[in-house]
Amino acid sequence: MMKSLMLMLLAIAAFSAHAAGELYKWRDAEGHVHYSDQPPPAGANSVERKTAKGNVVESDNMPFQSQEAAKKNPVTLYSFKDCGDPCTSAESYLAKRGIPFTLKNQEQDKLAVQKLTGDMQVPVMVVGTQSPLKGFQEAQWGELLDLAGYPRSNPLGNLKKVPASSAAKPAPKDD
What span, in angstroms and rounded, lies between the C-alpha atoms of 126 and 9? Predict the structure, then answer.
């Protein structure tokens, strides 16, 4: 009896280890979302890699209202190292409020700021298709985020912080 119980536990452990793995989510050129246990093809957009643990998959840690607002009006923040307090305050405000955003902070993103705003003043926040906001002014940013449908406070703030995401990272290549 003890031996069969031990064999059954070993079989379950082996199956769980086999079932755990990586899942990929990405968008194709037409914007369709795909899920797979294989890395996405070259040219895939918005690549996300999630780890499955047995039969449990990590899920979103955002309230439904934030998820809906993010689909309709995604937030992009342009912020660079040499910006200082205004950029730090802008990132802290978005994180405190629980706003999911894409952080653009690479050298090539400076050209995008120039093109969007006509100068290099940062931080710059873009919400959906609205005109970009230059410089951090909490009241002005809050108003735009309210209009875009984001909640005024992060109801999950005490549970888990919403991390700032950087631009989509490609899946690692097999060596």
Answer: 53
Which tens digits make up the pLDDT trace of 130-169?
999 999 999 999 999 999 999 988 866 655 444 444 444 4
Half-sphere exposure of 39 (CA within 13 A, CB side): 9
CA distances from 72 to 36, 68, 80, 148 (A): 25, 6, 26, 8
* Helices 138-147 & 85-97 angle (0-180, nearest 10): 40
Task: Say what the pTM is.
Answer: 0.56
> DSSP class of residue 76?
E
DSSP codes, 5-18: HHHHHHHHHHHHHH
Complete domains list, the chain, with CATH: 19-59 (no CATH), 64-166 (3.40.30.10)
Phi, psi of 65 (to 5 degrees): -60, -40
